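COMPLEX REQUEST
Ligand: zinc ion
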Amino acid sequence: MRMLIMGAPGAGKGTMASIIKEFYHIPHISTGDMFREAMKISSPVGLTAKQYIEKGELVPDEVTIRLVEERLREEDAQHGFLFDGFPRTLSQAQALDTILSLQNVKLDVVVDMRIDRDLLIKRLSGRRVCSQCNANYHIENLKPKVEGICDRCGSPLIQRKDDTEETIHHRLAVYEENTLPLIAYYEAKGLVVAAKGYGNTYQSFCEIEPILGAMHDYNQK
Ligand SMILES: [Zn+2]
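STATUS: Structure written out below.
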């Protein structure tokens, strides 16, 4: 199963990705994690990426694509993968198509996590995180035992700067601007499956799983 997962920040992408990864026994490939790892071990691509990231610039597509190309050659990715955080641009999407066609394989599915905007804002702006151990809470859905205090270590909970309503609006606008053309690109290829980005994620997966299976079978023919 060769898949991508997309979704606005807060649309439950991480949880869905871990369910998919377990269910299909495929590696979850997050380009963000790969860059962090490449920089940590100072690999050639890591050192190149670092030059841009330290200047606060975006890593150019060709560097990201090189990283992806190397990753796809590894043994565990031969029977499938789940990309997360990639592609981010149309040219990255086209590059991915080229890489896959050179390997004589095709993308099966693009899972798009969808959630109502107001719900998303409520979800993100209610998020609190422990200032010490990073444990996550929510003022409505996942309350700590004592308000404002971490259950695990007793430290004060804080709201991340990223999670204020104003920043969230901005993050969503940026996300939509970048992602909508990509969704359109994959929709034109008939690859997009919309998944509920709210409620129980496992249930949301069960709803789309037969469709994912059918799309994969179709591609094998
Ligand atoms: Zn804590």
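REMARKS: The CA atoms of residues 45 and 70 lie 10 Å apart. The mean pLDDT is 91.
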